[in-house]
UniProtKB/TrEMBL annotation, chain A:
Keywords: Hydrogen ion transport, Ion transport, Transport. GO terms for cellular component: proton-transporting V-type ATPase, V1 domain. InterPro entries: ATPase_V1-cplx_f_g_su, ATPase_V1-cplx_fsu_euk, ATPase_V1_fsu_sf. Subunit of the V1 complex of vacuolar(H+)-ATPase (V-ATPase), a multisubunit enzyme composed of a peripheral complex (V1) that hydrolyzes ATP and a membrane integral complex (V0) that translocates protons. V-ATPase is responsible for acidifying and maintaining the pH of intracellular compartments. It comes from the Eukaryota. This is V-type proton ATPase subunit F. Belongs to the V-ATPase F subunit family. V-ATPase is a heteromultimeric enzyme made up of two complexes: the ATP-hydrolytic V1 complex and the proton translocation V0 complex. It comes from Miscanthus lutarioriparius.
From TrEMBL, chain B:
Residues 29-38 have a biased composition (Basic and acidic residues). InterPro entries: Vma22/CCDC115 (IPR040357). PANTHER family: COILED-COIL DOMAIN-CONTAINING PROTEIN 115. GO terms for biological process: vacuolar proton-transporting V-type ATPase complex assembly. GO terms for molecular function: unfolded protein binding. Coiled coil: none annotated. This is Vacuolar ATPase assembly protein VMA22. Residues 1-38, 139-170 are annotated as: Disordered. It comes from the Eukaryota. Residues 146-170 have a biased composition (Polar residues). It comes from Miscanthus lutarioriparius. It holds the Pfam family Vma22_CCDC115.
Length: 130, 225
């Protein structure tokens, strides 16, 4: 049908992770780590030596791979490439911003909630009522 | 929920019920049923609320996992719990996702649904489920402690098969978990095992979050129109 984004049914898709070392280690313990024939992994460990370009490249790669269904990205890392994350609007892979050890989750910066926030604007309603 | 609907009406994006009060059956001026709009708004608000609650649960699960990981690192030593130990040889993920496209409210609206397949258990789970399903859908009463009657014979054998298949699945999961832990050596801290369970819980929540996100965006698309 015209204009419909095709979501191929996939019975063995991966979860990609762009996060700090402890978060990646934890999820690898849970069995999500994958290394293919070309030694490409489905995770990127972000530390103080990781450049914004590396994060951008990893994000673009994970969101273009057909074998990845969810991309987990620490919210503080997503803030470094906010323009890329907010500009992404495909249904699959789903981008989920997760908290990290030193940066708790902030719904105000979540790209999904930012997209739908204009329906709320509780603050503007409350200020009108005063 | 009524307060939330009222707030949305203040924004002017959703017409209020007052304007359609004269028409019984609540058909909007544009010809759309009013009840349908309210229902969609409620669905959207529910999905946003669910998303935020799940995110809160995920934060808790992750915090527990980080704490256990830090404890394991303290007892095993920093060099034994480190990303430098990760094997870069070819390996397939043991925990994967299934993605199915469920049509949104309109045919042009994609709505993916995600399901988690932990520790490559998909085939084992299906076989366990099938046997268990047959065992419990037989129209027979369960007789606790009574194993000698012929009517219970079939139930007993199905139940034994189900439990043995369940035991196989459990053994498989334990082996898979041990394999994931073996990256950090033969003997690992119990805290590393509990960290593994915490992150597995986090994975379950993440899949629910992905589905909640999918529902939220589908409802939002419907409301925008």
């Amino acid at each position: 049908m015209a204009g419909r984004a095709n979501i191929p049914t996939n019975s063995s898709a991966l979860i990609a992770i762009i996060a700090d070392e402890d978060t990646v280690t934890g999820f690898l313990l849970a069995g999500v780590g994958n290394v293919d024939l070309r030694k490409k992994t489905n995770y990127l460990i972000v530390d103080n030596k990781t450049t914004v370009k590396q994060i951008e490249d990893a994000f673009k790669e994970f969101t273009s791979r057909e074998d990845i269904a969810i991309v987990l990205i620490s919210q503080y890392v997503a803030n470094m490439i906010r323009f890329l994350v907010d500009g992404y609007n495909k249904p699959v892979p789903a981008i989920l911003e997760i908290p990290s050890k030193d940066h708790p989750y902030d719904p105000a910066h979540d790209s999904v909630l930012s997209r739908v926030k204009y329906l709320f604007s509780a603050e503007s309603v409350a200020s009108d009522r005063r | 929920m009524a307060a939330a609907t009222e707030e949305l009406q203040f924004l002017g994006s959703i017409p209020g019920p007052e304007g359609a009060g004269e028409v019984d059956g609540a058909v909007a001026e544009e010809g759309r049923p009013r009840g349908g709009d309210n229902e969609e708004i409620l669905r959207f608000m529910d999905s946003v609320d669910g998303y935020l609650l799940l995110m809160d649960s995920l934060s808790s699960a992750l915090r527990q996992g980080w704490l256990d990981l830090a404890s394991a690192r303290h007892s095993m030593g920093p060099s034994r719990v480190s990303s430098t130990l990760f094997d870069h040889k070819e390996q397939s993920a043991a925990t994967k996702l299934q993605v199915v496209d469920r049509d949104g409210l309109k045919p042009s609206e994609p709505k993916p649904h995600f399901a988690l397949s932990k520790w490559s258990l998909q085939e084992e789970c299906h076989s366990t489920y099938d046997v268990s399903e047959r065992a419990f859908t037989e129209p027979k009463m369960r007789h606790r402690g009574s194993v000698t009657t012929p009517e219970n014979g079939n139930y007993e054998s199905a139940n034994t098969t189900a439990s043995s298949t369940g035991a196989d699945a459990s053994n498989h999961v334990q082996r898979a978990r041990s394999k994931a832990l073996s990256v950090f050596g033969g003997l690992v801290s119990p805290k590393l095992r509990t960290a593994q369970l915490s992150f597995e819980t986090a994975l379950d929540l993440i899949v629910e979050l992905a589905n909640s996100r999918s529902n939220m965006l589908a409802s939002f698309s419907q409301l925008k129109e």
